[in-house]
Each structure stands twice: as structure tokens, then as C-alpha cells.
Amino acid sequence: MTGILVLAGTPIGDISDAPPRLAAELAGADVVAAEDTRRLRRLTQALGVQTSGRVVSYFEGNEAARTPELVEALVGGARVLLVTDAGMPSVSDPGYRLVAAAVEKDIKVTAVPGPSAVLTALALSGLPVDRFCFEGFLPRKAGERLSRLREVAEERRTLVYFEAPHRLDDTLAAMAEVFGTQRRAAVCRELTKTYEEIKRGPLGELAAWAAEGVRGEITVVVEGAPDKGAEELDATELVRRVQVREEAGERRKEAIAAVAAEAGIPKRDVFDAVVAAKNAARTTP
Predict the structure, then answer these.
(1) Predicted local distance difference test score (pLDDT) of residue 269
(2) Distance from the CA of 239 to the CA of which of 117, 168, 178, 227 falls in 20 to 30 A?
(3) For every residue of 24-93, which 3-state class applies, written as one string?
(4) Predicted TM-score (pTM) of this structure
């Protein structure tokens, strides 16, 4: 009889947010796979629980190598508990490989639902929550980061990102460049912790604020692209949208046609705006 894989959410800040079942799962698991065994030790001490099973590390660096070992334990009937440093396993954290491998072996996978920085930030952002998409971490390199942002420049759903504090200013500046300086966003810092802060405003203002330096765990929530067919766009915005599409690989003709369709205006209007901007750039000393 095969075992069971349990994905357990852990607190993202306040230890009292730990799911009630977490302590029982930690105490009863045959194997506890933890992203950081030292953090696991602090967690069990805070919860007043002792693990009776084998504790192993399971992090980005050994995830591929450790997965077969854990699957073997599951096939042998073990109850394997997977926890990460904070939040739900596999959400920008280790876990996906193990879940996929367990599913392939027809092993039952269940979860102890817990805190999520994604949903917490989304709820606190003040931005639309009816439709959203999680984009995880953006690439570290500037060019790759811009390319990834351009892929979702016209995304209508609210966007949620994780980001490291030392890259936040560059990321917000890139977002302002691609999405526009007036696109609304919220920077959620140190969620549920003592120094929790939610900074809301246009991307241009948030980029200037972050340039002074920001600390802590960061989640960024960005408003989706507006329905441009329902409002008038000035020439500058039309040109910017064509440029975004061109930089993403579209030919100018196709980019102009797409922007015109989105805005609900003739292609000629967009073409004229692009030509005018090009001529203005030539005459600017």
C-alpha cells in the first residue's frame, strides 16, 4: 500500500497563523522534507511539537536529486510531509517536482492549507481581485526582465510578483517603462510581521520611493491593463504601445493594427501618431 504526500502551508510571518493541523502532521509524519531544517527546528519549537520521523532537507539545490528518494519512501508506504520556509510548497518554492513525480506513480497528494503571500498581498492591494495571475520572480538580468514584462503588457488581469528587496527599485522602474508610469500598483512588505507595510500608488511614484532602499520580504501587485477600447488614448500612449509590441518581436504593421483594434480607432490614426513621433525624434537636437 503506497503512502501519502502532504503539502503543508507554514506561516509567512506571524507564527500564530500556523494551520491547526500543522502540528499534528509534523508530529506524525514518517518523513519531513524541509526547505531549511534549521527553520523547521525553530518552527517546531514555536509550536511545541517534536518530529518523530526522519527529517531531510529539500531545497532548490538538491530538489532534483532528493525527489527519487522521497518517491521511493512514498511507494514504500511512508507519509511524507513537505514544508518550505514560508507559505505553500511549490508556489515559487520547492515542491513541483515531487508532486509531479508522486502523481505519475499514482500516489495520493493532499494539503494542509495555510498562509499565502500571493493571496494576502492581492487582498490587501486594493486592486481588482476577481481575476489575477501569479508571475513569480522576474529574471535578474535587465534585458530578460523587460522581455518578460512586455509579454504581459496587455494582460487585463491583476498581476502578482515576488521580488527581492535589493532588486525592487529596478523592477518597479522596468514596470513603469513597460506598463506606464500611471499604472496602479501596491508593494506589500513584511506581510503579517511586525513592520508590515503596504505602499500603494502609480508605478512611477513607487519606483521613486523604492530607489531610496527597501527591506524585507516583498510581494508586488500590479493593476491589469485597462480596456483601451473604452477610452481615448493620446498619441504618446498609442506610440508607446506600438513600441512595446515591436520590442516584443512584432512587425510595425501588425503592431499598429493590434493597437488600433484595442483602442477602437482607425489604423491610420495610430500610423500617423507613430510617424509624427518618428519625425519629432529626428528634428530634436
Answers:
(1) 85
(2) 168
(3) HHHHHCCEEEECCHHHHHHHHHHHCCCCCCEEEECCCCCHHHHHHHHHHHHHCCCEEEEECCCECCCCCC
(4) 0.78
